[in-house]
Amino acid sequence: MSNDDTGGLNQGQRPPVYPGAMPPQAVPPRPAAPQPTAYPGAATQPPSPYGQPPVSVPPSYAPPAAVAPQPAYGQPQPPLAPGYPGAAPTQPGYAAPAYAPPYGQPYAAPLRSNGLAIAALICGIVGLVVVPFLPSIAAVITGHMGLSQTKHDPALGGRGFAITGLVLGYIGVGFWLLIGGLMLLGFLAAASSSYSGY
Predict the structure, then answer these.
(1) What is the residue extent of each domain of the chain?
(2) What is the DSSP string of 1-69?
(3) Global pTM value
């Protein structure tokens, strides 16, 4: 057994013919690739007599304008632009520094947070959700104090927190007063009905 790629056949030998196998045939030539057709209504170009596609000539452009030569090293340069009053003097041979104008307005410094406004917001949420009544009263008090501080100091932020704490505090106080009033009425109604039964 040999280790070459011929499959065990010597040069000039034909492979064995198996029963029912078709005899080998020559491979037919590949058909020519279809030529691309232009879209309907496109103008057709006459074929070139030399077999190459026509070449379009690019438009010619005017040569660039002549540039003034640079002065030799060490020679004084003419000033670029006349100075304005108050401008820093420039040395000969050096151009004035070019500073880009600022783009847009600079950012404003962030406002300091108001602790009373944040406390009012937290007390207002706690007074509605967790503990009844007392945190709502604290939210109303700290909300008014925080709102007063933000009005007097424009560098102090948290006005929205103070207003939200005030609103939640008043809602909490009103809600718990309503619930307490209904409970008191229910208790008085129950107490009066129990005494009238004698």
Answers:
(1) 115-195
(2) ---STTTTPPTTPPPPPPTTPPPP-PPPPPPPPPPPPPPTTPPPPPPPTTSS---PPPPP-PPPPPPPP
(3) 0.44
